[in-house]
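Homework help thread (please don't just give me the answer)

Our assignment gives two proteins as sequence + structure token strings and asks us to describe the second one. The first is just a warm-up. Here they are:
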Amino acid sequence: MPVHLIPRPSQDRGNADHGWLKTFHTFSFADYYDPEHSSFGSLRVINEDRVQPGTGFGTHAHKEFEIWSYVVSGELEHRDSLGNVEILKRGDVQLTSAGTGVRHSEHTAGTVPVHFLQIWARPSTAHLQPAYYTRHFSDAEKEDKWAKVVAPISAPGVKGEREGEGPTPVHAGVTMYASLLSPGKTLSHAVPGAADEQQRKAYVHLIQTSGYNEGAAKGNEVRLTGAGQEVSLREGDGAYVLAGGGEQLGVENVGEGRAEVVLFDVDVE
């Protein structure tokens, strides 16, 4: 199966400006519902959030989801019913395996807004005991290369420890990569799986590092290529990738600034 790229423009995502929170929803979430964009494999939520100082998400409950935050800028305070209290900064990834149930809150720490991605996936196994994991990935680890920041806990080299080195463990069929791509640079990514598989899935998202742009054509730009197809992404845009196992996806920075890109390999459900 050749690579098939399907754009997901930022202006077509669900979005809301609550004053204290500015948010975009790649998939159906809260008051936004679109049956054509409700999930992708086990990926259920990709929200890009900006939360003002002194505000945040009050204590609320989750169960049967893997939930993680990827901090772009500012500081995010996490508290939960497992007794965890932590201030997360740029480069930090915090993952809660909600399992049978957990309560948590997230607030902006410090005097500037926090900008982060909130991501959910459906777990591969139900009724897990709740767990908490954190990892840190420096800019240098992502400079013009893919850093594997989240990976299935069953994958080789992934450690199921609360803290440590290597990818953040997730109980789901999702692997997340992040890169800081310099102008003119190109990265390739081989969609995992056997060459004879009929379909594999990936999703690419270009983070809004230049600011909350309300879908405007500004900021960084990358070009995705594969099997003769080409799609351009502006900040906030994403793209679904359908491919056979082993197919190559190219990501090129065609803008003037450093582009922060995340990529998800997703198991086919």
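The one we have to describe:
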Amino acid sequence: MDFKKTKYGRFMNKRVSSDKRYQPTEYEHAANCATHALWIIPSIVGSSLLYFLSDDQWETITAWIYGFGLSGLFTMSTVFHTVSWKKSHLRTVEQLFHMCDRIVIYYFIAASYAPWLNLRELGPWAWHMRWMVWILACVGTVYVFFFHERYKIVELISYTATAIFPALVILSMHDRDGLFELAVGGVFYSLGMVFFRSDGLIPFAHAIWHVFVAMGAGIHYYAIWRYLYTPETSQMKTSR
């Protein structure tokens, strides 16, 4: 561990026990802020594009839901990491934003599924999953409220279950367009989770996790834009 401190002192601090929160270095704090702040404006612009491409009220509502989830993720993450970096006597505020940062991930997952559950013809469970995915997000919120940072493995499993369970319905799509992009985006999220738990083992681990999240979100956004909101897709849906 001394070797790590000597070699990576500016870029990584000592790993902490599972019941404590890792304290990033100044460089890691800056990277954590930048890697998600960079995507706030693009996420807002991209969400607005979906809104203007909407052909009916249901598409408009879905664009708003997805847009709030996408931009909310990057915004809350940036706010939390900024407060964490610049804190002085703001321990309570930092803790609050950390909880919000964890909670918004659940709603981002639910919002990411909304376009597929609302706009694509799915199997018989689709209607139930439209509200069940939000119940999962609410359950995650309650968990964070009562058990924040206590059981990190349970937290990781909870995020994974929330992300995978609705996918079982998505696989029932009669129209398979977009399924490849959904799978690729899921792979990026899954690979990023390796870094999510690697603070103190890999320099800039959390910032790398942020990059994987941004890439996964970008691929999923492309699939939603390309297969659910483009004029060509709208014409195909109208002709059916």
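TA reply:
I won't write it for you, but here's a hint about the kind of observation we're looking for: Residues 57-86 form the longest helix (30 residues).
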